[in-house]
């Protein structure tokens, strides 16, 4: 396939505010798009430079016990990649340092999904509840007594095979539980949930391999474009912890071609990505979401993703009628901006996620005097935005992230330490098992000068204890690397100098960053890799399925007001304390209801 634009040697440096192709950069016609039929929004910008399978002799265990990662790999989430020194079996033991397991809950009721879930916490009538969910599978737990958690409600589409187009006793056709933020809203004197409705990422229409991906499968692309459904977000007032207590107060389409975003037709196809992952909103006036507002936001290499998301700001003064204020993206994300896109060294690799996955990360809400929002967009790097006027978001700084292909190169930013030290923590996460991709570091970025953020270090790479019988977590089987530090609002006040990351097969890792020049791992909990035999698991004999063993610890949620860490795994939930690190835990009723962090 002939290249449309030659790949330059320069890195991708975000230019100032973009809303159209860069000045002096004529829009280019994708003449090579014949491989994708007539769809004009498949980015045939650079020639195919997809990574080749890694030479098995060029990576693996070293003589000093460390692991040398492959330089680059193609996207390959489904297959194991054994190497000399890797364990033949998954590890059934757990490892603990400076933490106490207060309670453990496993089985189907505590595992809505084996690979990923979202969480939220709310308080009603003196009781504390946790929501755990992933699209059609959801659970509500009463966690007031940490040692005696009760299942309050279970939501599922299991009886219709998980088909979101079908209604059942729990869900209407096309409805599900999208990634949500739940915040106390003073105007309504109630919790309000903003729930993302987005492109489904695990799809059958396209695949990772050449010929099945968006570059060589025009039929699959056309089927995705033709799918009906809301692209945007829904807003609910919560009158209690159960689904029956949700009161829908607004439905917003983020498709910029809709004449009325508050009254769109979800029975017809809508353009763009919808709102991605968790919206940023603290219950006040302004909200920020990650979104591709139409199908021209298309320039990403990822083989099964059709959209490259930027950001939008909304006025949420009236949650029943959210108002769009502004849309922002980096040059190169939109069809017609090929010259800027081609400057990214990932152009043509048919692998990298380019665009936002999460919303802006905001250290201080605008209403409380906050000025900056931090944006990480996969292989597009990290951008600092001035959001002091949310109706005019403005770029003030940018830093590229070192290429790390495959896997997600930039997904999460922890900004909890920014006010104290000016440091933010930026990370991606692994997509493959057995470390068959470059390691995903947690970058320390000095943002004290927001116009010139710079990478100044990395958090320590977790290493297993001697009792594990291995010297690197890559040997433990499954995925290894950081996920996220939970959520931007949690009950209570975030501890200065403490970060808790989910780390897949390395469990929950607690970092001490009080001195940014000498970060340390001060505690950890690494659970077993799989669940015990139970009739809940979807196998005939009740054993835990091997295909579900790879994504082990995929989430953490910290109740800073009770000093309790919830660890969300592929086989259940653990409640942990760390008295010497977080302080003495309260395992009973919270002293105050959770409204939002810092309040």
TrEMBL record:
Tree of life domain: Bacteria
Region span, Disordered: 15-41, 253-276
Bias kind Low complexity: ranges: 15-38
Official protein name in the record: LVIVD repeat-containing protein
């Amino acid at each position: 396939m002939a290249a449309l634009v030659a790949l330059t040697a320069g890195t991708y440096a975000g230019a100032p505010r973009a809303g159209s192709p860069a000045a002096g950069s004529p829009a280019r016609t994708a003449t090579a798009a014949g491989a994708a039929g007539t769809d004009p929004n498949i980015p045939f910008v650079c020639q195919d430079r997809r990574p080749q399978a890694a030479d098995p002799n060029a990576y693996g265990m070293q003589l000093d016990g460390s692991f040398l990662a492959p330089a680059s790999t193609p996207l390959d989430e489904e297959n194991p990649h054994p190497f000399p020194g890797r364990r033949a079996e998954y590890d059934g033991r757990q490892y603990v340092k400076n933490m106490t397991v207060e309670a453990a809950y496993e089985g189907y009721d505590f595992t809505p999904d084996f690979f990923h879930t979202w969480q939220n916490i709310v308080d009603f009538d003196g009781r504390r509840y946790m929501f755990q969910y992933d699209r059609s599978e959801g659970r509500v737990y009463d966690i007031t007594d940490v040692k005696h958690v009760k299942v309050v409600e279970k939501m599922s589409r299991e009886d219709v095979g998980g088909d979101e187009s079908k209604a059942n006793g729990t869900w209407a056709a096309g409805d599900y539980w999208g990634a949500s933020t739940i915040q106390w809203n003073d105007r309504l004197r109630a919790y309000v949930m903003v729930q993302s409705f987005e492109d489904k990422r695990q799809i059958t229409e396209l695949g990772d391999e050449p010929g099945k991906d968006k570059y060589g499968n025009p039929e699959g692309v056309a089927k995705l474009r033709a799918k009906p459904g809301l692209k945007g977000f829904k807003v609910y007032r919560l009158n209690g912890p159960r689904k029956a207590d949700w009161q829908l107060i607004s439905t917003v389409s983020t498709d910029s071609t809709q004449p009325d975003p508050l009254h769109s037709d979800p029975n017809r196809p809508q353009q763009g990505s919808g709102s991605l992952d968790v919206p940023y909103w603290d219950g006040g006036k302004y909200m920020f979401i990650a979104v591709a507002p139409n199908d021209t936001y298309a320039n990403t290499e990822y083989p099964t993703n059709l959209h490259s998301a930027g950001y939008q700001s909304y006025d949420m003064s009236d949650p029943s009628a959210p108002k769009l204020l502004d849309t922002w993206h980096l040059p190169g994300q939109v069809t017609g901006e090929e010259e800027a896109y081609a400057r990214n060294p990932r152009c043509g690799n048919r692998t990298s996620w380019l665009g936002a996955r999460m919303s802006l990360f905001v250290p201080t809400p605008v209403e409380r005097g906050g000025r900056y929002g931090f944006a990480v967009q996969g292989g597009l790097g990290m951008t600092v935005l001035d959001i002091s006027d949310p109706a005019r978001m403005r770029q003030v700084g940018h830093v590229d992230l070192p290429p790390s292909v495959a896997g997600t190169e930039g997904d999460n930013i922890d900004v909890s330490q920014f006010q104290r030290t000016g440091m933010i923590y930026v990370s991606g996460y692994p997509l493959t098992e057995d470390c068959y991709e470059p390691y995903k570091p947690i970058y320390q970025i000095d943002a004290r000068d927001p116009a010139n953020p710079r990478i100044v270090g990395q958090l320590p790479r977790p290493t297993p204890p001697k009792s594990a019988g291995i010297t690197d977590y890559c040997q433990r089987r499954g995925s290894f690397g950081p996920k996220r530090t939970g959520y931007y609002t949690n009950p209570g006040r975030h501890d200065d100098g403490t970060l808790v990351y989910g780390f897949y097969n390395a469990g929950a890792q607690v970092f001490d960053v009080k001195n940014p020049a000498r970060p340390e791992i001060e505690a950890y909990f690494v659970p077993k890799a799989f669940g015990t035999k139970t009739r809940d698991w979807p196998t005939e004999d009740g054993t835990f399925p091997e295909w579900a063993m790879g994504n082990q610890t995929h989430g953490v949620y910290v109740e800073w007001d009770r000093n309790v860490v919830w660890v969300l795994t592929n086989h259940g939930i653990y409640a942990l304390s760390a008295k010497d690190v977080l302080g003495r835990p309260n395992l009973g009723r919270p002293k105050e209801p959770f409204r939002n962090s810092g309040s």
